[in-house]
Amino acid sequence: MTSPDRGSDDAASSALVRLGLTRTEARVLLGIGRLGSATAREIADATDVPRSQVYGTTEDLEELGLLYVQHAQPKEYHAVAPGEVESILRSRFERDLETVVDRLEELERLQSPDAETREEIWTVRGREAIDGRVAQLVGGAETRIVLGARAERFVPDRHVQLLAERAADGVEVVVISSDRATLELFADVEEVTAIEPPESMSEDEHVARLLVVDDASVLHSVLVPEPVDGEEETAFWSGDSGFARMLVSLVEHSLSEALEE
């Protein structure tokens, strides 16, 4: 049975690996953090990392600024303050992320102008990816945004703020939901119209959210009955296509009824 303390170390180690450290570097860094200061032998005993690997690993961590070395006999390795570790890792992550985004933007510019429009319907899987696509579509809206959401969890705080900002910019924003908690998210945002769906608008139990932007782009997400890796939501989105125009027509018809009630 895994102890809570061991479980915390495992979670932190996995997080450090995602931030760019090797598994061994993560184990050694956490071991020194636990000991405060230690020799290579003590680190090896505490982390189950062979002492022959500890030497090279501590050198790498020292170069990253994640530990201090006291040149005594034998050498002692000292933990860096948690706040300093956070600053170093955050800066490293942001630099790497900037490098990736810059390259992706460069590659996007190299695409042919109609590279994306060749496909009518695009698929996005997973809550975070769908949230990102929704934010992108909402951010690019010029005249009108209509968002339908099954429940509050499908309208994260950053979307509430973004919708309020777009409404303040003069974009018409309408939120439709039969979930009272979802509508309450916009209770204090006068520029956003938050309404319940009309009776004629049927609610499919699998639909999670529906977004229409400028009567041209549409995102329609559904709940996956048997999700893989916790990604319970899958979305289809399209712009200026037959699929988009069909959904826009259906939404506009139902919306006109709702606004008249």
From TrEMBL:
Protein name in UniProt: TrmB family transcriptional regulator
Residues covered by the Transcription regulator TrmB N-terminal domain: 18-82
Organism for this UniProt entry: Halalkaliarchaeum desulfuricum
Pfam families, alphabetized: TrmB
